[in-house]
Each structure stands twice: as structure tokens, then as C-alpha cells.
Amino acid sequence: MGAANSVRKLTIDSIALLEQLEPNAAELVTKRAVRQRVQQLLRRQWPTVRVLPFGSSESGLGFGGCDVDLGIYFEDVDVDAQGQFSPQERIKLLDTACECLAGTFQVEQFIRNARVPVIKLWDPKRQVACDVCVGGVNALLNTALLKYYGQVDPRVRPLVFAIKYWAKQRGINDSVNGTLSSYGFTLLLIFYLQSNYAEVQLPSVHSVVQNLQSQTKVSVLLERLQSPPAMELPSTFGTSEMDSVGALLAGFFDFYANRFNMEDEVVSVRSGTALSKTTKWSHPTSWRLSIEDPFELAHDVGPL
Fold it and tell me: Signal peptide location in the record (predicted)?
């Protein structure tokens, strides 16, 4: 098989994989019902609470059957203040949430010592698992950003699904076990698609979400997130561009294997360009991959 035919087959297989793995309409409806039920129960305790989805299920980059990530937000608490809840305050709020949800949901696990404490729930009626935490603004911004990238260029979703599936099949998609998280792989792809080595040229995070982090109320922030900036695409953009999915997927692996300087540079989708490790981190290490979190700038997503 020639190179051109191999790339075309890669395109066809990637698009087919997306169609196979993405959640169907019924699953999306069920997950929305779970969110609404959690919010309904919690409002008996906190009338101003809003339960908002975040993560891959909401961004459109999650596989069918993946857990629902839900954040607890309070309309009468400033967004910044909510993000600064201490671990003890978050645990106390989640203890109360467990009391409100017990009976309707099964509390499978309460992870108190995580960086973000979380309760793992099971809905026996709808057969859906969900993780509930006290949400922060970064979770909403991050989800909206990835959803935006997936909507602005239709090649992004099949590429994300192909790379995440590739990593999952090899058991290298779990940061708990010392490998890169699915989120990390997604950031690697976005950064590649921002580079001069890809024809897509996605915008930087800064250009997409500037001014959003100054919002103080959850309702105002959500309203702004519904109207992200438009990205100018060529007037000829259409179905034919999907033919480049295979070439972009191959280019992704070539970029990180042969072109990106992992020893000296940091992946930064916030700026859309590589950063110097010595400038970015106080104790840089040349032997590992480094990925700047686009919103928690002091957090390295890729400490491998």
C-alpha cells in the first residue's frame, strides 16, 4: 500500500473510530437527567446551588460510557472565592452533599485526600456513574475551551479520539500510574495543531478566553462561555479538509518524536508557542515532558 493510500486509510479509520466511541443521543439525554436530579436534591439544602457539568463528557471529547463530572457552584459566592475553598471546606460541603444525595444515589467512594476531593456516585435508576466535587472556575473554562476547539474545526474530535484510544489500548493514559492523563494527550494535540507544523493553526488559549477570568458571578461567566470568539476559517473549508485527518494524526507523532524539543521546552497551549523550561519552572528537569496547564499556570500536567 502506497503512502497516500495509507494516510487515506488512517483518515477513514479515525473517523470511523469517532463514530464508534462517541456517546449516542440517548446517553447524552440520560446524563443531563442525572445532573438535573443531583441539582434538584442539593437545592433542598442550598437554594442557590448550581450543579454544572465539566470534563470530557461536557466538552464532547469523552468516550461513550465515561463518567459524568459534576461541580457544585454557589450563585451567591464569587467565582474566585469559590475556587479558593480549602480542602477542609470542600470536604465539609461534600459531606453535606452525601447526606442530600443518599437514598437516590449510591455513594460508592469519598476520596478526601485528592488534590480536589470528590465523591463517586452511582445512579441505579439510570445506570450512570458520576463524580461530584466542589467546582472551581478553571474547570468551566477548561471544558469550554476544549469544547470550542472541537467545534471550531471538525478535525479536532476524530484526532482526539484516535490519540486517546491509542493511549488507552497501550495502558499509558493514567497519571496515577505514572503515565500521561487523557487531558495531557489532548493538550499535546492542541499544541501541535497550533504549531507551524500543522495546517490547522488553532488559536492560543489567551485569545479565546481573555476577559473571562474577570467575571465574578457563575451566571455571568456561563453566559460569556456560551459565546466564544469566532475563528476565521478559509472560505473553502469544508468536507475536503477532513481528508487531512490521517496526515495530521501521523504529523502529531512525528512532531513529538522528531521536532519538539522536550529537553528544553514546555508545551503551552495558553500562549500557542513553546516556553523555556528554565524560564517557566524554578527547578526544571530536562529528562521529562512538561505541559503547562492553561489555567493553573503553576501546575505541570506532564510530570513524566
Answer: none
Which cell numbers hold the place of 40?
434538584
Q: Do 205 and 270 meet the contact criterion of CB atoms below 8 Å apart?
A: yes
74: β partners: 49
pTM: 0.90
| Contact residues for 96 (Cβ-Cβ < 8 A; gap 6+) | 45
- We find that the CATH architecture of domain 25-137 is 2-Layer Sandwich (3.30)
Between helix 156-169 and helix 137-152 the angle, nearest 10°, is 110
C-alpha cell read off for 138 = 478553571
Place of cell 503551552: 268
Please report where in the chains the cell 469544508 appears, as a residue.
238
CA pair distance 18, 60, nearest whole angstrom: 11
Query: Minimal CA–CA distance to 185: which of 207, 210, 168?
Result: 168
Annotation: CATH topology of 140-225+237-292? Poly(a)-polymerase, middle domain (1.10.1410)
pLDDT for 232 equals 55
Instruction: For residue range 167-194, list pLDDT tens digits in order.
Output: 999 999 988 788 999 999 999 999 999 9
Q: Which residue has the cell 502506497?
A: 2
Residue 190's nearest CA partner among 265, 259, 260, 272 is: 272
C-alpha–C-alpha distance, residues 188 and 145, integer Å: 14
Q: Pseudo-torsion of CA 67, 72, 75, 81, nearest 10°?
A: -120
Question: Where are any strands of DSSP class E within the chain?
Answer: 49-54, 68-74, 106-111, 118-123, 128-134, 265-266, 275-276
pLDDT at residue number 304: 63
161 burial level (CB within 10 Å; 0-12, 13-18, 19+): buried
Q: What are the φ and ψ backbone dihedral angles of 285, each rounded to 5 degrees?
A: -125, 135
Q: Where are the domains of the chain?
A: 25-137, 140-225+237-292
